[in-house]
Batch of 3 targets.
Target 1
Amino acid sequence: MAGPVTRGKTRIRAVFAALALLLGGLAGPPQIESAELRPLAPPEDAPRLSPGPDGRVLMLLDIPGQSPGVPVTVTLHPFWDEDARTFDFRLEGPDAAPDGKTATTETGQPIQLKAEGIPEGRVVWGLLETRQDGDPKRLPLVLGAFGPAVEDADSLDVTPNGQAQLTLDISRHRAFGKKARFELTPFSAQGQPAEILFPDPAGEGPATTSLEVELPETGREITLEIDARSLRAETDYAGALRTTIGEHRFIDTKLVVKRRNWQAGAAFSEIADRQGPGPLGLTLSAAGDQTVRGFWVANLTGAADDFLPSEHLEITLDGEPLEPLDPRNPEQVRRRTLEPGEIKEIVVAAKEALPPGSYDVALRFGASNVEPENWQDVKVTLVKRRHLAWPIGVLVVAVLLSYATTKGLSAMIQRRDLRRRITEIQKKSWLRSDRWGALPVVRAFGRAKMADLALSLRLRWNLLTWLSRFVTTPQLLVDEVKEVEDRMEVLKRLNALAIYWNAAPSASGAMVTDFDERVVNRAQKILRGIVDRLGQVQEGEDVGTEIMDEIAALEAWEARQKLTEGYWASLSGDIQLLLDAVDLDHFDFDGDTRLHLEGLLRTALGATTKPAEKQALEAALKAAKTAAQEGVAALRESPLPAGIADADATESDLQALEACEREVVRRLCQALDLTTSPGPLSEMIQMERTYTRLKLIWEQRNDDERRPALIEKVRNNTPVETILKDLDDDVWERLKAEGTVRIVPPDAQQRIEEYQPIDFKLECTDPKANTFLFKHGLEYEWTIDWDGERQLKPITRSTVVTQFVPQEAEVKVGVIVRRGRESFSIGLAHDQDASGKVAFVEGSKTFKTAPTSAFKHLWPTPTPELIGIAIALILALVTGLQSDVFDTAVAGSWKEYLALFAWGIAADQTKNLLANLDSLTKGEGPAKA
């Protein structure tokens, strides 16, 4: 620790003092001048010590040449700062003098110095004197809050890639706290600033100029990584490391940093030539284990008439243009560095202004640490394609033209055949003359009409549908016509049955006359059920075998085949339903007469003493009590004694009970016994007459006016025809009353479209008139008028008719209700105008129809034709875009485009060939175009 003894620096007014002495000697007695003396600065190699948080410094006394254990006297002299302020520090320990100026110890032993009051950020210096055997040695000391010592702080080398490490001695600073914040001040070289950063230890955030570090509890040193990539190579940059621990800031540690330059000797791996359309990538990598630093690319391509490399070519790295390398720019050198095993791609692309064609480009690759003899020349043949829409458009046009050529003729034939089939449907006389308005028949006619209009583009027209007629037939129309054809025979049979059984008017006026009215009514009822079920069959569904069997069975009635069996099956079913519904408790039973009869029987029972008569009277009395539930017939079956008193009165009571409502209904129910079926048809008809009587009574059970009259007629064996006529006469008079029958218009909230089947309905507001006569026994002549231009005049025997309006219009509805020669009208006048049309009057029902949504989208439709053309297009595009023909066509002349056009035609024809081969192998003949 011994060293040369020096004094502090002297700040003397030398010039002024010399002049004063000289002038004083010449002029007279000399005057005394004073000079301010200050201690000199310590030498640069003076030990620098940092007091701890408590202001103490522990020094190890080690005198060169002396063995440990030799007595030594240590004397502490005052310390100064740069402003000449004096600081008196103390020596401490058991061997220190009370004044702290001296201490006696031995070599190799520690000495403790108490140094308090040193200003923050300042240093103080002084002398420590040791004396051994009278030989004094003085050692200059510098005290202050010095930051950690940095290894190689005066010349820290940074690797060429800008990375380095700071090794700090923190042994004297751990006592100030557990965390330290280090900050790098700005660095500069020759007035040029630069920035050195601490990388994020976690590798997640950006590099910063400050870093907070947890100080280890053991060890003298810590290591900090720095990023000095912004420094120019082979240049000394001066700066400092600033340390803060807790609230204690230490004096900056000066640093001198130099970034070393790269060493030559690296090389590229072989860079392969490239050619092809679109942007081309050139792969760069370093050969061996040497890093390639600062690579560059030179364009050696010469200019041509239509090719200027500077304007037409773009060379990029990581999506950014590759500018000439600035070796002084560390960021550029870093981006253009290839570490061993690293791969980067240089992309060469044609700009938009470059005309389509093939161009040869010559490039040269070098780097800062690659010798010129290792530079590589690379050839790139760049193909500039036309826009992708050109070849795709050619392929699409080729396929469409081929499709139109091969499919157009067959589509025209198919449309002609479809039109012929529609015409044949519409020519059916029974269909054209149909007026009975059955839903299945009207629906079939409307669908055929709509298909006809759609086929001729009178229903929906636009450019696409107009073009489609030349190459394809919408599958929707084909399916529609086929379904109508499939049901046409069924509908024809239904229409014939309706005319035969007088359920629908015919043009000839023919009707059945040789069947009993009961048979005709039942046939009409069966026919209505068939029509209702057929109307519920949705589009696309098959007509069930059950419906077909019912039609065949009804047709067999005309030839008397299975007439009896079918008639009885229908009648017995209705009888059973009626018997299940009838409840005798709805009808009165003569209770007073029954009580009178009970009294007579009780009197006779009390007057007789004969056991046999008594037993007979008791049985009759019991039967009288249960007559209301079991019927008067049970009382008749009980034998009464021959000599019973008041026999005439008893018989009168029995006849009165048999004439009451309940007994009349009971007898009708008993007459409809289904345990044994009747033999001939006449007996079945007679049973239906009984069924009709019971049904009328049951339907009028709540009508206290009609029910007694009906029962009275039944009690008197009035013919059922007379009963029905009387009832119908009453109903007819009620129906003619104003407001009893009204037209129910379609729901205004429901969209009603043209050609859509619409139910036109009549409603009876009088419950007493809402009988079979109103529902099925009258003839209804409908008049359906739209926009005053056209009229429909269906005639039905029911209160509902189904029709369609063939245009968007305002619709008016009226009806004439006819019974024989009598009639009344609803919503129209009886008289006709000069044109023969029925004139509507106030009170008619009107509504509006909307355009039909059927066949709204005839193009494109998922038809086999469209699927075929889609397959051909996909085939042409997939194969064409992968072929050499495409590669040459997009950058070549019209000759290549003709070749691509032929490719598209071949793709479509190949599809047709495969379809025909598949059909021929299945024995179906050539596939339809």
Note: The mean pLDDT is 77.
Target 2
Amino acid sequence: MRFRLRHKLVLWMAIVAILPAITASVVGISMILNRLRDNLHKETRKNLDIGVNLVVAQIDAVKKASEILAKKDYLMDLLNGSDLSFQNETQLKKEFANLGYGTIQVLSKKGHLRGSLYLGNVDEITTLREIEKDYEESLKISSKAIKAVVNDYAASIELISWKIRQGNGVGKTKIFIRALSPILNDDYDLKGAVVVTTVIDELFCRNISTILGSEIIIYPLKGDPARDFVTSFRNKDNLSMNESPVNPEIIKEKSSETASMKVFETNILNSRYSVALNFFSNSHGEPIAVFAVALNIAAIQKGQDDAVLTIILVSLLALILVSIMAYVLARTIARPLNTLVTRVQDVARGELDIVLEIDRGDEIGELSTSFNNMTKELRNLRDKQSLQMSEMQTLNEISNAISIQVGLQNVVSEAVGSISLAIHSSDNLFYLKDDEGVFQSAYCDGTLCEKINELEINGMKLYEFAVQKGEPEYIADLRESFPELELDGEIIAFPINFKMEHIACAIFYRNSPPLKWNKIHFRVLGNVCDQVGIYIVNAQMYEKISSFNEDLERMVEERTTALKEANDRLANTLDELTNTQYKVRINDRLAGLGSLMAGVAHEINSPIGAIEAATENLGKQVKVFIDNLILISESSKETSKLTYILTLMENLFADFASSPVSETREYIKARTGELNQVLDNFAVQNSRQLARRFTELHANDQVKNFLIHHGGDDSDLYLGFMQEFLLIVKNISSMSKATRSIMTVVKALRAYSHVKQDIPEWTNIHDGIETSLVILANKLKHNITVVKEYGDIPPARVYGDELSQVWTNLIMNAAQAIDGKGIIKITTSVSEDDKIIVTITDSGRGIPPDVLNKIFEPFFTTKKTGEGSGLGLGIVQTIVSKRHGGEIDVTSKPGETSFIVSLPVIVENDSESSGES
């Protein structure tokens, strides 16, 4: 028969301690009492001092417990209004079991109770709830200490007297030890407070009594003398107040004595006791309880003569027995415990492949089994963490390998190759949708691609079936599902999406390895394919832009060649000047286009960078948004709340496109403060950060409406859900704005790059000026201020593309005249003779009077060699005068130079003029 460890300890203690103690007590107590009689009062007083010190030690233990608890991470569950996990609750009760019965309460940073945990065992749930309610109500008496903790971060310890029901409805006054400590985060910000309250009860008195060998009685001064005292006496109900040392008359008599209170004797339960009293005071110095130590002297009077000799003999016998039993205990208990300690130290050093072989039926055997289970769980956790780290490393390596690729083919081949290496596939195919919406094979790697391409499901190719299905198609055993293909292994077709549109499909195949693809492989595929879609779209956009740049370079090269040929012809004959001026003007325009390409590229690159950043953020935020939506749908029991917030966000999405009104910093700060106060009232976490974010997103009123109608414990989750939605909308708006910027630049560049316009067309003059401003935006955006004063002018039938070159040359000259710093003013109006007047004025240094009449001559320039050709203003005059029949004039003085262009509303083309003549 196997004995439990506690049975063995009881047996050994009965042999070693109880029997000798009984024998020594019966034979020798009478002898000891006679000799100790003279020191009785001194011993009683000493026991009183020791008892007081033990109470102080208990107070210190409660204080230290509150300080330790304030640093526990899992205490944040109670602070958030949630229950502790069973493991954390068990660990906490075990760690602070020495405190006895009491409670651990967690307060918010405003002093409100957020959660509590009762220390001790209570059989009935209703009783536990009533006790916890008593402790909650007792916080009223500590209101000043709570304010000191949450306002000044000041920890405190105090004794309190409080009347509780104890779960049975009968009020009883007891003495409690209460410690309060602030809960701070790593930045020393207050998160709340922890309150540890323990009761001074019979168990506490018995523990002190066991240490002192004296009986203990503690009585609250405001309590009922007949029943509110606690004591170590086992038969408390038979204790009469007339003979008790806490008798009100005795207390009154002794409280009038000096501070060093005298020891007195009294009869308690028909026995004679030596009693010493002391008073416990609260933090204000007010006495709240009496602490009494009673030493039984009746038993000491017996056996005075032979007690000493008997105790000596019994002690020798006990020493022999204890020595023998100690050796046996060391063999039985200490050795396996030492083995266990050694193995625990090995585990602490990281050696997890350890198995204890201790086959016993007591607690040591159970401890050995628990240790083996713990090392097994640690090994499993280590393996799981290794798999997760491997997955994260694989995703990072694949993402880095793809991100450095530029061309579309490089992105596809690198993506497929990296994924194939990660999931150990042998054959890979990649299909990409072209501009006409047809999926074409873009990449093939392996010897079985043709066979794999023959695989059909429901009459459709595998990639077509996966794309139509809209989710991955996985076939675990090809031989079983498609025996006619003679393929042995597994295959998966993974559609790749971008903005809810299928743009590609990747197929991966591998023959029959010992292990199949698992969840980790599929998770890697899902995460990587989401990124691949973005990289493919970026690569396609890059190739289009590269092709556009190549076309522009080719056009510049062709026009440069034509310019050289025209210059040669110009040198041969002056008669051909009229015919070649138009070509010179076009080539100068293209040459200017080449010099402006850097600025245009910068203007295009900025919104592309914004699109890329917004796309990256959008991918992350969409994932968080979906995760929050799933979490809300799983945890929310009120569908009305989810419907309300979805309707609210739908209205926000409709209003978000409009540009917000300009707001001052003081207004934004005030709005943030108002929202922060509302969030604090609903106990929302990170209220200041959320208030600032929602103010920036112009959603203050919507957040307030939601909290007023549906605020609750889960407000943090819904507000986080709303925040992610608004950030997604904000990124979409940023992408739309950047796209419009690119379209504006491309449209302006397309209009500017037109070589010749055969016939005049109805044109808005303002649009042409705006096109030139877009082309020159990179040269005008630093220290130059463009002031536009557009008048009410009608559409004109003109050569609009050629006029764009006029505006571009005049604005460029104005920018160069002010050395990149100053004001350019553009004014339009209609003259009295119904002509359109366009005036471009700069605040530059002006044109000297001696050269003012030469500025429109071909090849005349005031710029340094290499800075200008002298053709710009000559071409401008040709376009205005000869092509449009208009006039151009210039006025100049320091600080104000104006070019005035006068144009007819309708310009006739060459064919119309020939017909009329």
Note: The chain has a mean pLDDT of 76.
Target 3
Amino acid sequence: MVCSTIRSSRMPVAPLTLSSCRSPKPGVSLNAQPSRLTLSTLLLALFVALVLSLPPLVTGAAGASETDSDSVSVEGAAAAGTGANSPSADGALDAPLLQWLVLGPCQVRLPVFSDSTRTGERAQEVLGRRYLDLSKLAPVEGEKLSWGPGVSLAWEKGELADDVIPFGLAGHDTSTVGVAYVACYLDSPRWQKMELVLKTRQRTAVYLDGEEVSKKTEATRETEEPEEFKTELKLPRDKHVLLVKSVFDSRDSLAEWFVRPYLRMQSEALPYVPAVSLDPVHRFSFKDMEKMKSVRDVAASPDGKLVAVVVREVDTQRDKYVTLLDVFDARSGERVHSIRMGDRISEPEWAPDSKSMVFLSDSPGEGADLWLLDTATRGLEKIVAGEKGPAAPRWSPDGAHLFFTSWDPQPAEKDERSYEKLEELYERWGYWKNKSHLFVLTLQSRTRLQLTTGEFTVQFYELSPDGRTVAFLRSVPITERPFFETELWALDVESLKSRTLLTERFDISRLSWSPDGTRIAFIGECSVGTKDDVHNRYHSSLYLLDVSSGAYEKLSRDSGPSLGAELLGVRWGRDVLWWDGNRRLYFVATDKTRVRLYHLDPAAPERVREAELPFKVPYYFDVSADRKHLACVGTSVSDHRKVYVVDLSKSKTVEVFDPARDAMKHALRARVQPVDFVNSDGVTINGWLYYPHDFDAGQSYPLIVYYYGGVTAAGETFSREAHWFAGQGYFYYVLTPRGAAGYGQEFADAHVNDWGGLSAKDVMEGVENVLSGKSFLDRERIGCYGGSYGGFLTMSLLTQTDLFRAAVALYGISNIASYWGVGWWGYLYSDVASALSFPWNRPDVYVKKSPLFAADKIETPLLLLHGTADTNVPPAESDQMFAALKVLDRDVVYVKWEGEGHGISSKPSSSRDSRQIMLEWFDKQLKGQPEAWDERWRQE
């Protein structure tokens, strides 16, 4: 017997051994299987000659051949795990699959009182049951699996006989049904379709990546030739788990139990035959993204011994995101509590004695419930039920009372009119009608009191160290820019006497009382919103207020970092500002590409010291009551997000929880290289270049460029999207153009009234810098994309350069004037991004800088993605650009998501589809691979 295989150039796979081509085992009859031994040598030679004579493969959009990076060779076939190719009746090529892991056979009994008693019915019932958790299946040779009480199985390398997987006889116990699984990995170098063909008499089900794709529900009689059971496989560029489940019922009177598997493809698909292996290691994929759990909150117990973590995961069956609550030992990382309740758990808050905790969860009816957890007894008690808009639970220092905010009770009668009157700009926002106010609950008696009321919402509050005073913030609309004033109030919780501590025209986000209660530190915008202020106020500063006098001073320098954790994909957490005794004030700040922890003495604020943390980017901060233990999430460009506890007194760090451990177990990360450069104006621009996993300096690769361009910088964080694109065979470049906070006030101010000027210039120069000296990057195959302001920047770039071969604008702004008037935050955001500029006095901004008014300059194929329920950037922004480009007869496609808001991510399927469509667009335009794109829209 002659065996030949096809090897992919993509991933290392175990070489095929002679055991894959052994003669049939004694006692295994294969007389019904057609032999190909006499033809295989001749056919292989013919196919090699055919491949060598094939014309060049499909040329990409720029004329580059995809044989550079996506082809496989027949000469290296031994590693692919497929056997000699032979033609089928319709001229297609058949490639036997010779590498398999086998689980079983195993005998299963039907449940007691099962109705499936007739021949065939019980086998079909077994075929339909999912005994394995296929969503997490990643078989490894030698891996053991507990099948049930007293039964243990292991994945073993299959011993094939003449391309056949024999399972032996299942015995003649008519009370059981035999089940066996075989699995392998198919590493596809590009998106493609082909057939899996199985010759078998048994009932069979085929699964690809955990999803059932076909099923053979009837057994073939012994007297008949085993028919070809065909399954169409759609294989994106990924490593896929192929699983075949075979069921043997002795009542079928079959003497043999086997399956002969092979792939069937057309000759033009031969260079892209998937590599077959038994190795689960793979490039980081979108499946990994969906499997990665993410942290949504971290809360350290006051004694520093426990950490509560809110975790979000994907429920694929219901197409929903769900959150749960886990509690870990801060020293060992052991999980000590796990709470699953409804679809959403949030805001855990420890009691001062660390013995109990409150948290919020969805109510079975409307609103949310507030629960009390006793960590010693594990007892759960609902203490507030069906609350509308509850948030921010806080314990009094003595643990006797619980403060929280909630919506002010509304009148029972509703206004049934189908119209409403607006007299103020803020009335456009529906949430403004739901006023959030402060309440206190006495735990012993469950007495509940309302502490504030009125027209304006309590936005943030903080209890004084003695628990007697609440400092709270509220925003009050005004008619002049910046259109809101911030008020800081002090409220005596017993007498309800209150006084205003501060009223200013800038936003305040966080407060922290000094231990003696005489001062309040706060984080606010960099400057007061005066009539002539044109600073980018998203760059935040540190302030200190004297409670008795109301006088305040700025402690931080405008040229330094921006207060808070302000990088893309990063959240602040609970504590970004706290006191260590009366002397030192700790604060978190964004310093260019990193987030750092600093401290200073307010008496000498110029002497700022950094508290070293062992992460490039920490966030979701929470500090224990003794100020010694800091819980946070830590990440870097190459390491995914994990929860840590840092002992600040000993500089000791413990990894408490890795939410992505299972998802990343076999996933390969991309190589990441910093690519900072100095632009033509002498400003340093930070960026990173992600390499594809199969990088070969002698080949040519497409490049995808990502940017935001708004007020938030990209940082040294783990970017799932970047590693995913690298796994799809692209170089991926991300950079932070001028205008973002964290680089000092001057850098941030470049955002004001710029709208695609300096930011677009930085992107174009950054791309040229990356291309310089890198012959493996194909200048003719560059794509770009961004979302929100980044979507605007995409469209703006296309009016200024022909550098890009394809582009994607995600929920972007095309008309600055319409966004100013219609966007949810339009006129408020524009008060910073277009300071002192309005549609009536600055057509050079609102018209000249709007991509819509330069649409005739766009020649690059553009994909627009937008949700119909997006109020932040209304879909009319994409509607207008789509209409303009269609009238101009340009290459543009517009994909809309019904009911989706900003980000197109309210459901896992929406997030997945929008990103996959973006990839398919780039594959079509940059790789000359339109198959996935065409397949998605084929039925239309």
Note: The first helix runs from residue 37 to 52.
